[in-house]
Specification:
It is flat and about 80 Å long. β8 and β9 form a beta hairpin. It is an alpha/beta fold. The protein has three domains: about 45-160, Gyrase A, domain 2 (2-Layer Sandwich); about 165-250 and about 405-465, tRNA modification GTPase MnmE domain 2 (Four Helix Bundle (Hemerythrin (Met), subunit A), Up-down Bundle); about 255-400, 3-Layer(aba) Sandwich (Rossmann fold), CATH 3.40.50. It is built from 16 helices and twelve strands. The structure holds guanosine-5'-triphosphate and magnesium ion (MG). Guanosine-5'-triphosphate (GTP) binds next to α10.
Length: about 475
């Protein structure tokens, strides 16, 4: 089991008395974790949607998985060979369930790094269920969400960023998002973390030498400059990684944009024009939209998710007020807020982050004089390109962002920022000429953050959350 909750460094700090209590605790905890995530157990799941289809795939993984397969499959398996394809019948006791093609993976090959198989049966939910039942009858259990990928990670077949890329690949809505997710799956994104990790490890090693041999005062003084210089270099590296990562994240996840403004300015018409679809109801009556109407479109490789809202006005009906309240709540999640006007003299101050606001004048075909602070569109004439171009301008994406590897998920970016903060503390402490062992504390924190990006510390805390976002069978 790699999921051990104690590290040798923790033990070192314990005395004999509390060590026994600690070990008892760890044992109990360990058994708990072991039971929940016992990697010896065979897991089984349907890997394709539970629908009538041409084919369905049942996937199983775990030490005894092929033993079970041998019991229920008529084809003779040659386990000395990996990734073999067989043809035969799946049977439960005397009953034939289906004629199936099976791919057999032997440990440590295949996705999970364990004995595993993929059974391709005819696409009937009933057949797939009976195959799954045949496995469960023989000791397997249903896999939890993302458990195949979790095992691949725990068996060091993939790191945490690669595991997250698997999910991105399944979620990808555009060709561009798919390409970036594939880079992640191949491990190209993970490679970007490694120089940072190595630099931190080198600097940590240097500090350890200073802690262990404090008598060499000359070296220590010289090292303070080196520490600051190296920490600054790393911060620079992090800034570039974060900048590129945030842009790639936009390509993968898309951008959320809310249309707000007074009643009747044409927000719903604008939504329809943007989506090129009559999604929202449009009338000349004020207060037509009450609930939020939303839809997605793709522009130049970026998925835009637009939200149309109830027009802002006071003294209105209860239903409309609920709609306005709902929109205000959702506003926090938005990347941009498009403030739609049909007359710039009616503009009112908005209490929203200014960088997020794009001021748009609709019904531009009726406007005579234009003001450079506004983007002019006409929903009626389906002329919405100026708004889309403004959004693209603000995103400031470059060609490289669509094709280069990057550290592009929120979790990893947050950890990079945490690393940066710890390094800033290192610089602060070093500038104050604090003892090396104090400086080392923040440096160790920075190092731990970087290890967590790839999951190299195999920490229980965040893995569960990550894998629970996956589909069952993945
Ligand atoms: N001339 C002109 N009229 C427009 C344009 N866009 C919308 N309209 C008209 O403006 C009126 C209001 O349009 P909506 O899209 O329902 O406006 P809204 O902002 O969603 O209104 P509420 O939902 O009530 O807040 C309708 O009569 C539309 O036909 C435009 O670009 N030019
Ligand atoms: Mg409307």
């Amino acid at each position: 089991m790699e999921k051990n909750v104690i590290s040798s460094s923790n033990i070192k700090t314990l005395n004999k008395d509390n060590l026994s209590i600690y070990l008892l605790l760890v044992e109990t905890l360990g058994v708990f974790i072991y039971n929940k995530h016992c990697m010896d157990e065979v897991i089984v799941a349907l890997a394709t949607p539970p629908l009538k289809s041409a084919l369905a795939i049942v996937r199983a993984s775990g030490e005894d998985c092929l033993k079970i397969l041998e019991e229920i499959y008529t084809a003779k398996l040659d386990l000395s060979k990996d990734k073999q394809v067989y043809f035969g019948y799946i049977k439960d006791e005397e009953e034939t369930i289906d004629q199936c093609v099976v791919i057999v993976y032997t440990k440590p090959h295949g996705y999970t790094g364990e004995n595993a198989c993929e059974i391709m049966c005819h696409g009937s939910v009933n057949i797939a269920n009976r195959i799954i039942e045949a496995f469960i009858k023989r000791g397997a259990r249903l896999a939890e969400r993302g458990e195949f990928s979790e095992r691949a990670y725990l068996n060091n077949k993939i790191d945490l960023m690669q595991a997250e890329a698997v999910n991105d690949l399944i979620d990808a809505k555009t060709k561009e998002a798919q390409n970036l997710a594939l880079l992640g799956l191949k491990g190209d994104n993970s490679k970007l973390v490694k120089p940072l990790r190595n630099k931190l490890a080198d600097l940590l090693a240097l500090l350890e030498v200073n802690i262990d041999f404090p008598e060499y005062e000359d070296i220590e003084v010289a090292n303070v400059d080196k520490i600051i210089k190296e920490a600054k270099k790393m911060i620079n590296l992090i800034d570039n990684l974060v900048q590129d990562g945030l842009k790639a994240k936009i390509i993968i996840e898309g951008v959320k944009v809310m249309l707000i403004g007074h009643t009747n300015v044409g927000k719903s018409s604008l939504l329809n024009a943007l989506l090129n679809e009559e999604k929202a109801i449009v009338t000349s009556i004020e207060g037509t939209t009450r609930d939020i109407v939303d839809g997605e479109m793709n522009y130049q490789g970026v998925t835009f998710h637009f939200y149309d809202t109830a027009g802002l006005r006071e003294n209105t009906s209860e239903i409309e007020l609920i709609g306005i309240k709902k929109a205000k709540k959702l506003m926090k999640e938005m990347d941009y807020i498009v403030y739609v006007l049909d007359d710039i003299n009616q503009e009112e101050p908005l209490h929203i982050d200014k960088k997020k606001i794009i001021k748009v004048v609709n019904k531009s075909e009726l406007v005579k004089n234009r003001n450079k602070d506004y983007i002019y569109v006409s929903a009626k004439k389906r002329d919405v390109k100026p708004l889309l171009d403004e959004l693209m301008k603000r995103l400031n994406l470059e060609k490289d962002n669509f094709k280069n590897p990057s550290i592009n998920n929120a979790r990893a970016i947050a950890l990079l920022n945490k690393t940066k903060n710890a390094l800033k503390q290192v610089i602060k402490d070093a500038t104050l000429n604090l003892p090396i062992d104090i400086i080392s504390v923040s440096l160790q924190e920075a190092y731990a953050c970087v290890l967590a990006i790839l999951g190299e510390d195999h920490d229980q805390g965040y893995e569960e959350e990550i894998f629970s976002r996956f589909c069952v069978g993945k």
